[in-house]
Amino acid sequence: MKYPAVLSFTDILPELDRFDTIIDARSESEYALDHIPGAINAPVLDDVQRVRVGTLYKQVGAFEAKKVGAPLVAANIARHIETLWADQPREWKPLVYCWRGGNRSGSMAHILAKVGWPVVQLDGGYKAYRAHVAAALEDPPALDLRVVCGTTGSGKSRLLETLAGIGAQVLDLEQLAAHRGSVLGHLPGEPQPTQKMFESRIWDKLRHFDPSRPVFVESESKKVGNLRVPDAVMARMRAAPCIALQLARENRVRLLMQDYDHFCRDPDVLTGQLAHLAQLHGKEKIGTWRDLAHGGEMAELVEQLLQDHYDPAYLRSIERNFVRYAQAEVLELRDIGTADFLAAARQLHAG
Predict the structure, then answer these.
(1) Which of 98, 149, 242, 264 is catalytic?
(2) What is the dihedral of CA 274, 278, 281, 287, to 10 degrees?
């Protein structure tokens, strides 16, 4: 094969996991919005340079823009080779892409090929990849989904984590979305990805699953924080068999206080989030909850939140949205220790 080889994403996909390095040649801000899973960012033009060259292109013309851009591109590619890939052997096989598969990835792929590496350039660039992901999520693979249902604090996320740890197939949407899926679900210090990045993460998980084995997923709503679960994926989840995870209320309170310890340590942040529930519960109830938080009575606050908000909301929605919940397999947790979740996970995995 002559290198650089310029291939479509359809041709590349069967080999995608076999590339030694996937190189996103776009700017750092483009990369941050979304990228092929596993790709590293090696900009041919960084954000500032891209604006400069793009402005010249629009205001003066292509020739003047290329005269300014060419030495910037050459210097950036040289630096990447020197700092990132100088020790790579002749057999190192990278995949390079940019926005549309044009000059940026073409320049990098050309130079890498001249060095002697068997480089592949993605024809159509990120746009071609994104079109594939969008189409794939409109018709996701037929998987044996098993939906883990349970009231807030029943340990669904811990169970999924334990299942993954013993080798089960798990689609953890909250982990992919960096959010616990409720008004209090924001993870401190961890912003949510963009919608496109979320979809890339889901697509990447789905394509690696073995369709002959079950895939465990939590009974999410259509949105996880600010992110929307793709409609077709949600439809498959809602039609799947269910597992009803049960845990005593007092143990749910303990579990939630462990998982949301950051709120216990900073009640101001908690009460700020509770304000979003004022329309549902009224200012007086929110005031009572605020007083409990600032008075250090977190266990009582969690108990009331479960009783007055989370449990009624769950009961209203679960049977309406997950049509096979009435026939759910019941799985009871005795406590919230590691051994309890491991026993439950093994029971599901064996079944």
Answers:
(1) 98
(2) 70
